[in-house]
Write a structure and sequence with these properties.
The protein has helices at 23-34, 110-124, 213-222, 240-243, 255-261, 315-318, 368-386, 401-411, 413-417, 442-448, 494-508, and strands at 12-13, 16-19, 40-42, 134-141, 153-159, 162-166, 168-171, 177-178, 205-209, 228-233, 266-279, 282-289, 294-299, 301-304, 308-309, 322-323, 328-329, 343-345, 394-395, 422-429, 433-441, 453-459, 467-474, 477-482. By secondary structure, it is of the alpha/beta class. The chain is globular and about 80 Å long. The relative contact order is 0.11.
Amino acid sequence: MADLAQQPFPPGRYGLIVVGSGPGGLQLSYSLSRLGVDHAVLSDDPAPGGMFRRWPVFQRMLSWTKPFTGVERHERAYERFDWNSLLADEAPNRAVMPALMDGTSYFPSRPEMQKGLESFAERTGIRVRYGTRWDSTAAGPSPARGGGQGGGQDFILTTSDGEYRAPVVVFAVGVAQPYRPAIPGLEQVPHYGDFRPVETYKDKRIFIVGKQNSGFEIATGLLPWARQLVLASPSPTKLSVNTHTLVGVRARYVQPYEDAAVAGGVIILDATIEEVKKDGAGYRVRTRNTAGQELTMAADDVIAATGFVTPLRDLPALGVATFGQSRLPAQTPFWESATVPGIFFAGTITQGSAGLKKHGIPSNSGAVQGYRYNARVLARHLAETKFGVPATRERIDAAAVVPYLLEQVSKGPELWHQRAYLARVINLDHDTGITNEGIVPLQYFLDAGGDDAVAATLESNGQGNPYPVVYVRKDGSVGEHALAPDPLLDFTGRDYHDELRGVLEPVLSGAGSPA
């Protein structure tokens, strides 16, 4: 590790501190710097990458980067097909991943993903103080604002390098702390993150606790090695190909599911795990199905693929409310702690701001292709609300609104990756004119109220192709208008143009007629 004196951001007070150097922290730091917001970035890791310096265990990503799409890689529209590169304003720094991939798969390997993050950080000049472990957090009066009654507040971070203070802190520390449910004996078996080399499982009967992606990833990797694989958890397995979303086991890991369906040596059980008991060199696992029937089976190895929790350290003691098994912090639509103002989150933790979850479908904020956009929106929000940096709001002619919105729902990557979560918003202030408000959390648009405006999103109902939805706010009331899906996923045709023109006519008429 570099000498501490030579590293950036020595202990002291800063206007904003970002904790973490995974994709979420890197994207936020880049976006803040582009907006001119000074900040410090601290990371316990020795280099960029976060969890992708270690996982996934079988060294291949679930998110794809398509090399050939008919779209130039430096164009914004290419982001729809490149789920792994971070976002840059400068063309040379966009779409970093494709050039680093060896071409054997459109799913990057873990080392390629790590290299992509390192390359992005180096090319864009992101500065991070590495090897600095965040240990604890406290709150105290801000010397810059006088403190005391009615004064400002600083958060005080105790780290391995010393004390840091800031009125605004963004935690981008991932959801990467292994979770084990309170099952007797489960504490003695390895977790997903402790997976051994595959050859050590040769000709063995393996019991995997958990039927989410991590469990099926392990099962897929062990198919050529294990004698038998048993996957068990209480809930039935969902497949992404059936939900038409990223909810469920992804297609890359579906081979064990087919193997079980044709009785090829994989067993999938919908059952609770009652006990894991050591039995000589192996284990005995006792399960119970929904009918109350118990089944005990022998296994040579047991692996806990039971998920992860958010490593928040002492933030809950500071008042940060959490929820769910993953202990995600409860957040506002702009990813601020719902209970401790001034603490924000970036990266995969932003899935704690659930949004509308229309049709029961969550956002993609748990994955790079989703939370990279959250980070960019958050940077703009922080710049404007905490540092007085006004956002750029371009004027748009009334005649251009309809074709512009149809172009956005057809090709806008933010809307494709964060469906019913992020929206393209056009403000229709009849005194100041029509302005492009950019990308805004849909829930915020619906809850905040304000002038007449239009928010366009792309949405899914879990049953077919995505389709555009337009929310029109007029005189304080919001109407929702869904357009039909298109089999070729192109919403720029004349029928869409005419329908959207009819929807927007009442709000555009005061500012000019739509095309």
